[in-house]
Design goal:
The complex is a heterodimer of chains A (396) and B (146).
Chain A lengths: L3 E2 L10 H12 L10 H21 L6 E4 L2 H18 L4 E5 L4 H12 L3 E5 L9 H7 L4 E5 L13 H11 L2 E5 L18 E5 L10 E5 L25 H16 L1 H20 L4 E3 L10 E6 L4 H10 L2 E2 L5 H4 L6 H5 L4 H4 L2 E5 L6 H20 L2 H8 L7
Parallel strand pairs in A: 1-11, 3-4, 3-5, 5-6, 6-7
Antiparallel strand pairs in A: 2-8, 7-8, 9-10, 10-12
Helix pairs in contact in A: 1-7, 2-7, 3-4, 5-6, 8-13, 9-13
Chain B lengths: L5 H8 L12 E7 L4 E10 L2 E10 L2 H14 L4 H5 L3 H7 L8 H21 L24
The chains are: A alpha/beta (396), B alpha+beta (146).
């Protein structure tokens, strides 16, 4: 049986270019960039070349890029740094949204326990915030605005440039978690008025365990890993040079092919959405147009997401769901709840995240198989029975 | 999938006794759609024996597998025996469930109890009320572990 991998928002397969870019830094240029000898200095030079290339992809200066272990670490460092520096000036208010990634949300929850106040902006039914809403929430004591570039579950793309402009005007630091955006949609920190940004290599066909943090020159950054002078003293630890090589190659490749890939993905996405919306009592979650070209997120009433995923897996389709059962908690995804979906509807969600290696045949197969599985599960669902008999009202 | 045992996957992908009984003698429904699990059990009873049993379930893989296994364990058995079925027995028969899925086996036990109580009530059969505690909320399930 063929495997159709459509869970690219979780992680991607590495590109051949990225893999090829890495091997030299395991076998030949394996030195420690902090060593003074030739092998070490070769590594150091390579490291700085990669920094420059990553900076170019984001339109910033090389010295504004710090390599990390991934998106979560970058989110943690950016947010804690801006918060703690704000607190030194008596600013203990942070603005974010209700549907950020847990790397952001859990950091904010911890800061709340430490005495910070956080305003979580409503993301509305379409999964979008507006710059005006951000502006209205900014106070004298606001230390940081952190709004994700694109949502990991529903794929909605926030008006980053406008939010950045509002923050710049009001003198508030603006961080964006661009883990789902980098390499997929244009990211230009200068144009988009971004002060801090997080990204992760494995979301754009790079290796796992490596990411980057952008911190605009002039915006202070605190150190969270102590122990060495690496990354200009902001993150100790011998650099993951091979990982950084792979990330750089993957990011350049993704950015170079962005237009072509997006055009292909948009066609596949639209076909998939149209095909799946033919299932009665189904719903697309998040704005249809202001969303990542690769993201489809649907709810099907009367069924539960984990059983849907397992049955699709048995047909070779690897997708994901925001159902409670897949998270190990009783509540379905906080993202779907933030969009205002009732619990019982959110349990029946399916996220399909494509990559440019998916084909129209993959999409056709998904469109032919998902309705069968939904129909089967509805056939054995007491909830669906009540909905169909009119004992309960359809919610979607 | 490593999440579940082969037996769970078997009962999930090929559930036994799935369906409804139109002229059921007892029907039990437990769970809550908000929490993501609802089980409905239909019983056909003759001379104190469960002649037939069917289920409908809204829920995850382990909820469907637990329903399937529980119906297998009580089919053809006297009501008294069905009443003594524990969630632990269901989970064990499935070669175990992940810790956070054990509540699915509790739901199966409760759904069977609710269906038997429904049969007793409909037929005016006296029973020991302590055997049928009020259905409780999802997060209050008493999970019987080793």
């Amino acid at each position: 049986m063929r495997t159709i991998y459509v869970d690219n928002a979780a992680t991607t397969a590495m590109s051949d270019t990225a893999i090829a870019a890495m091997t030299d830094y395991y076998k030949t240029v394996y030195g420690n960039p902090s060593s003074l000898h030739t092998v070490g200095q070769q590594a150091k030079e390579a490291l700085e070349r990669f920094r420059g290339r990553v900076a170019k992809c984001l339109n910033c200066e090389p010295r504004e890029i710090y390599f990390t272990s991934g998106g979560s670490e970058a989110d943690n460092q950016c947010i804690r740094s801006a918060a703690l520096l704000g607190a030194r000036k008596g600013k203990k208010h942070i603005i974010s949204t209700a549907f950020e990634h847990h790397a952001v949300l859990h950091t904010l929850k911890k800061l709340e326990k430490e005495g910070f106040e956080v305003t979580y902006l409503d993301v509305h039914e379409n999964g979008l915030v507006t710059a005006d809403e951000v502006a209205a929430a900014i106070r004298e004591d606001t230390a940081l605005v952190t709004v994700m570039f694109a949502n990991n579950e529903v794929g909605t793309i926030q008006p980053i440039e406008e939010i950045g402009a509002v923050c710049r005007k009001k003198g508030v630091i603006f961080h964006t978690d661009a883990v789902q955006a980098a390499g997929h949609i244009p990211v230009d920190v200068k144009l988009q008025n971004v002060d801090m940004l997080s990204l992760s290599a494995h979301k754009f066909h790079g290796p796992k365990g490596v990411g980057a943090l952008y911190c605009r020159r002039g915006v202070p950054l605190l150190t969270f890993v102590e122990g060495g002078a690496q990354e200009r003293g902001k993150r100790a630890g011998t650099e993951n040079l091979a990982g950084i090589a792979g990330m750089t190659a993957a990011l350049e490749e993704a950015c170079a092919n962005m237009e072509k890939n997006s055009a292909k993905l948009l066609k596949l996405r639209e076909k998939l959405i149209d095909g799946l919306l033919k299932i009665p009592h189904s719903k697309l979650n998040g704005d249809r147009h202001k969303r990542l070209p690769a993201n489809v997120n649907m709810c099907f009433e009367g069924i539960e997401g984990e059983s849907l995923l397992l049955l699709l897996d048995a047909k070779g389709i690897c997708a994901s769901s925001g159902s409670a059962c897949t998270s190990g908690s009783l509540d379905p995804s906080h993202v779907l709840l933030a969009l205002g979906l009732p619990h019982e509807v959110a349990h029946g969600s399916l996220r399909i995240s494509l990559s440019e290696s998916n084909t129209e045949a993959d999409v056709d197969y998904i469109i032919s198989e998902v309705p069968k599985v939904v129909e089967y599960l509805r056939g054995i669902s007491p909830v669906w029975e009540k909905l169909e008999k009119g004992i309960q009202e359809h919610l979607i | 999938m490593a999440l579940y045992s082969e037996k769970v996957m078997d009962h999930f992908t090929n559930p036994r006794n799935v369906g409804k009984i139109e002229d059921a003698d007892g029907i039990g429904e437990v769970g809550n759609a908000k929490c993501g699990d609802i089980m409905k059990i239909y019983l056909k009873i003759k001379d104190g024996i469960i002649e037939d049993v069917k289920f409908n379930t809204f829920g995850c893989g382990s909820a469907i597998a637990s329903s399937s296994m529980a119906t297998e364990l009580i089919k053809g058995k006297p009501l008294t025996e069905a009443l003594s079925l524990t969630n632990k027995a269901v989970a064990e028969a499935l070669d175990g469930l992940p810790a956070h899925k054990l509540h699915c086996s509790v739901l199966a036990e409760e759904a069977i109890r609710a269906a038997i109580k429904d049969y007793y009530d409909k037929n005016g059969i006296a029973y020991d009320k302590s055997q049928f505690p009020d259905p409780h909320d999802e997060d209050e399930h008493v999970v019987e572990e080793d």
